[in-house]
Write a structure and sequence with these properties.
The chain is an all-alpha fold and about 260 residues long. The protein has eleven helices and no strands. The longest helix has about 35 residues. It is globular.
Length: about 260
């Protein structure tokens, strides 16, 4: 346990030195506030563009507060996922490539502690950043449009946070396979995209897919109730995360011992 805590603290300290604890939450906060601000000021933006014939009236229906908040979360599902993959693609592969991992593992450090501590430190950064971004979006939706119940906000935070955890774990999984951070980032993004396409095309048969957690979050915010299949997707996501971590440890041990 002492080994795990030491590696965990070392990773957090390194992320402070790399300013990840600064730019990562700021990025998510900007993503969170961009949608409610753009929707609220869209009529003024259109008017400022000019070029419309005199007397032209453009009526843009205003989305509901839950819909706007989900649109903000959709920003996390595109740019946010890209940020997560880019920030974590060298978490292990970078140290393997530079030889730092060998120096650490020469000491009596278990592979389990090494992998899980790095995963936990990155996970803490992701969850804190997502929380800041979600709260910022919720605040602007509250003052510009309408209120959203806090219990719905909390459940959406947990459900979508689990999807972000799954994406992060995929990146950690490929970190154990490859030494090149660029390869890790490309394959991780490709895997997420392929899973999203397959799940979207076969959504009726893949209701328990972890990818569905994103759409379930939107349905939860709009209806206030957990959609059918949410608990199945949650359970499958948790099991997949545990399996990916376990396989990552086994693969990493074999490659390092080789």
């Amino acid at each position: 346990m002492m080994q795990w805590a030491t590696i965990f603290q070392k990773e957090n300290l390194e992320m402070w030195r790399n300013f990840k604890w600064i730019w990562f939450p700021i990025s998510f906060m900007l993503l969170g506030v961009s949608e409610p601000l753009s929707v609220y000021y869209m009529p003024q933006i259109i008017d400022s563009l000019g070029g419309m014939p005199e007397g032209t009236v453009i009526e843009i229906p205003t989305p509901s507060a839950p819909e706007i908040l989900f649109q903000s979360i959709s920003q996390f599902n595109t740019i946010g996922l890209l940020i997560i993959v880019l920030a974590s693609m060298g978490l292990i592969s970078g140290e393997r490539k530079s030889g730092v991992a060998e120096l650490i593992l020469v000491k009596p450090v278990s592979y389990l502690a090494y992998i899980t501590a790095k995963w936990a430190s990155a996970l803490l950064l992701v969850w804190v950043s997502f929380f800041i971004g979600l709260i910022a979006s919720w605040y602007y939706v509250l003052i510009l449009f309408d209120k959203i119940p806090l219990d719905d906000l909390f459940r959406a935070f947990v459900v979508y946070g689990l999807w972000l955890t799954f994406v992060l774990t995929i990146t950690i999984f490929f970190n154990a396979f490859f030494k090149s951070p660029g390869v890790v980032g490309f394959i991780s993004l490709a895997t997420v995209i392929v899973l999203s396409i397959i799940t979207g095309a076969l959504s009726h048969w893949l209701q328990w897919s972890p990818v569905q957690l994103s759409s379930y979050t939107g349905e939860l915010l709009v209806s206030g109730e957990l959609p059918d299949g949410t608990w199945g997707a949650i359970i499958l996501s948790v099991c997949s995360i545990l399996v990916l971590l376990a396989v990552s440890i086994v693969v990493f041990r074999k490659k390092e011992l080789a």
